[in-house]
Amino acid sequence: MNDLLELTKVTRRFGGLTAVQSVDLRVRQGQIKAVIGPNGAGKTTLFNLISCVLPVSAGLIQFQGNALNRLKAYAAAALGISRTFQTAAIFHNMSILENVMLGRHMRSRRGLFRVAIKTPGARREEKAIREDALQWLHFMGVNDRFDSLPGELPFVIHRKIEIARALATEPKLLLLDEPAAGLDIRETEELAACIQKIRDQGITILIIEHDMSLVMDISDEVCVLNYGAKIAEGAPRDVQRNEEVIEAYLGKEH
Ligand SMILES: Nc1ncnc2c1ncn2[C@@H]1O[C@H](COP(=O)(O)OP(=O)(O)OP(=O)(O)O)[C@@H](O)[C@H]1O
Ligand SMILES: [Mg+2]
Question: How far from chain centre, in Å, is Cα 189?
């Protein structure tokens, strides 16, 4: 299988702090790859770099062979990179359906402006976007109350809405930042099934997750960050047994 995403010596500094340090990472087409590591290891920063929310300080990020350096986030989304955020980014003054429809509009710089001007073409496009959003909500197992405000619904629904919105951008690569945070065991299992279903659609997944049983269950490969640097990478079982990884999580005395 080909590499969809390739990071070469990627570094990001914030003043004197190096949040991501010379990281090499390859994500193959069709993989579910996990990024794990202690708090502050640089995982979210890595996602911010891949989704072009932040520029790299040094190094190269290539997506399908194209360099992402200097691209804006909407341009990365247009290329097929979509993401969710560590704290579910839901708009509470918009309905569930509108939250998901926003995904398609986020792909283009003019998107929101075009929605505001209701030409017949725009109305047709709006209808198609609406149907598409409904389909992704069904896919995520959200089957009713599309016109409700999300605030009234359980947190797991917020997560699903956010993932449905990311899917509505028709990504090739989906970045999930701690999607199981705040979910109970049953909800986490449900989410795991959803993630596998997304991969079965041909979408490659890079997931940051603290829930180790979820990581072990669904990942083909795991990459471990500590203090911004990659300290291990490989099959979940091997990474779990790696001395340096155990030390990073539990401290030297173990
Ligand atoms: N915009 C920023 N400005 C300054 N420092 C930042 C910024 N974003 C992240 N950092 C710092 O970079 C380091 C890595 O943070 P990051 O959020 O990437 O870690 P993480 O691995 O996602 O942690 P967690 O598991 O807690 O989510 C931390 O020391 C953090 O304080
Ligand atoms: Mg984080």
Answer: 18
